[in-house]
Structures are given as C-alpha cells and as structure tokens.
Amino acid sequence: MATYGSFRPPERCVHCCGPFKTYDCGMKTLTLVRHAKSSWKNPGLPDRMRPLNKRGRRAAPMMGRRLAEQGPPVELIVSSPAVRAAETAEAMAEEMEYPWDEIVTDDGLYEADGAEILMVIERQDDWIDHLMLIGHNPGLTELVNTLAHAGVENVPTCGVVRLVYDVEYWAQISEVQPVQVMFDYPKRTSG
C-alpha cells in the first residue's frame, strides 16, 4: 500500500472536464464502504488481524464490479489498516482496475467515529475529485447520517454509500447537502 506522498493529480477530471484536467470542476464524489464480512473463526486473533470470511471474499469483488460499472472512476482509495478493510480495498480495487500499490492506509479510520472519519476526508488533497474510504461501523453509519441526513440504521458489511457534492474543496462537504446519494449493498437486488 502506498503512502500519501506518491500521488500525482490525474490528467483528466472524473466528472466533466475534457481529456486534460485543467481546472477543478467543482464536484466531489465521496464513496464510503464498510469492510466486507470478516471471520470470527479464530477467537484469539486481535481485532485488527481478522481476515475476510468466504462471504466477504465473494461480496467485495462483486461490489467493486458494481462501482466500476456505475463510474466515475475512483482517484484515491484510503483504507483502515485492519486486515478485513485492507482485503476489502484490494478486492474492490482489482475489479475497478485501481492499482493495489496506490491504496493508502490511514490509522485514523480504525475504530473512528463519524467526526474522526470526516477529519480524514477533509485533509485530502482537493485535486482528488473521487475519494473512496473503507472503514468500520458504527462510525461509517454515523457519518452517512450526518452528511446525508439519510436515516440509515446500519450500513451493512460491504455496503457502499456514494455522495456527490457540488463543492470544490473536501472541507466543504459537511456544510452542504449532497446533490446525489446512492446506497448499495451485497444483498440488494436489482429489481
């Protein structure tokens, strides 16, 4: 996984610009993902070290494919350092054709409440137009309800919430309502 220092601005805007990203289009897409289902097979294993179980290993690539089909492409993936979150990030990244070695881990996402997750978001570079975070409940659900006033009781394992904002800076997302909210999860049917 990469460190923050290895990233360069993309050559094109993921929302509206032409072939070269010459300016910020004023749109930010935030994709929040709860890690996929984890294993409790080894009760002596520290919480951070729990891997995905069989269901989680199926759900993460499936949700990655759904995100890839829906677009826009993710420019930066930031994951909790917990094994289950990192495995979720890697499985989804593969389906989205996002390089594994550019996934960033941030200790601030492990056991974080909504306000702490928001701080991680707000410190991201503003040239990033589509940010994806992989984290944990209850903080993730708390943040979704704070930002979108969505009334979501629980973001399930491998659940995805995509929020689109008409803002130029990540620090502005807590000040406005998203212009688009998408909520998806593995057990959702397309009908």
Question: Into which percent range does the helicity of residues fall?
Answer: 25-40%
DSSP strand tally: 6
Looking at the structure, what is the overall shape?
globular
Q: What string gives the helices and strands in order?
A: EHEHEHEHEE
Give a short synopsis of this structure.
With 191 residues, the chain is of the alpha/beta class. The protein is 26% helix and 16% strand. The protein has one domain (23-129, 137-148, 164-184): Rossmann fold (3-Layer(aba) Sandwich).
Which secondary structure elements does this structure contain, and how are they paired or packed?
Layout lengths: L27 E7 L19 H17 L5 E4 L3 H13 L8 E2 L8 H9 L7 E6 L3 H10 L11 E6 L14 E5 L7
Parallel strand pairs: 1-4, 2-3, 2-4
Antiparallel strand pairs: 1-5, 5-6
